[in-house]
Structure formats: structure tokens, C-alpha cells
Amino acid sequence: MVKEIERKLPVVHMCTIVPISLTVGANRIVPTIAIPHPLGDPTRTPEEEKALRRSLVERALKALQTEITEQTVFTK
Q: Where are the domains of the chain?
């Protein structure tokens, strides 16, 4: 299914468990924080959490703009 969606538009899979994303065939993978809080960290201040979320979204946008030929994990 992932491959069919990718034929129409690029997709980034933001996930906490990268091996599962690799197994299901996701092409652009952005690791996130933790299972209960994939896009945040409630132990941080609101300002720190906003910066963390922004960095994850920016990494996902960079992944969308990157040409790939194989599964790629975007860690930075």
C-alpha cells in the first residue's frame, strides 16, 4: 500500500519504532520521541517542546524534498 501511495505523492512516515517502518516498506522514515508521545515530550517546558516539534516537522519536510532510491531513515 505504501508503494502505491508513493506513486502519487511522496510520504514521510514519522514513527517511534523504525524497524517496523522498514518492515512495512516505508521509504522516508523520521524517528520520533516515544510511543505515548511521538511528537512531543511532556517533561520539557512548553518552549522546549515547541522547538522539538518544530525540528521534527522540519526534518520531515526535508525528507519530502529529498530524492531517494531506497528506504532512508532521516535522523538529522
A: 2-73
